[in-house]
Specification:
Elements (H helix, E strand, L loop, with lengths): L1 E5 L8 H18 L3 E10 L2 E9 L3 E10 L2 E10 L6 H12 L6 H8 L3
Antiparallel strand pairs: 1-5, 2-3, 3-4, 4-5
């Protein structure tokens, strides 16, 4: 699943500020879902800093990515039953899905909006 939200102000472009924001998101997600963190990494997609979390609840295994870009918060979430955590076929499909996400430039957006 991919979701996005708009905020009243743009996120800071400073990596240290972004990382602190991602720490807050991590803490809220883990607490809200009563989850155990398995791993986390700072990641970059198309030059934008994000965070990847891997965690487990009582019934679910979740791989989650979040990015703050401008005024927008992007969240990519995959979830499967916890007992399928180590299934290599599912893991490969999850990685393909998450890696398929890219940011497009405003120029590309404007070109798509122009009448043909």
């Amino acid at each position: 699943m991919i979701t996005w939200s708009d905020f009243p102000r743009a996120a800071a472009a400073d990596d240290h500020v972004l990382k602190a924001g991602y720490d807050t998101v991590r803490d809220q997600v883990l607490t809200g879902m009563s989850a155990k963190l398995i791993g986390e990494n700072d990641i970059r997609t198309d030059g934008f800093l994000g965070r990847e979390l891997v965690f487990k609840t009582a019934t679910q295994f979740v791989k989650y990515r979040v990015f703050f870009v401008g005024r927008r918060d992007y969240q990519l979430i995959t979830s499967r039953y916890a007992d399928l955590e180590n299934d290599p076929d599912i893991s490969n499909e999850v990685d393909k899905f998450l890696d398929s996400f890219h940011f497009i430039s405003q120029t590309a957006v404007n070109k798509q909006k122009k009448p043909q």
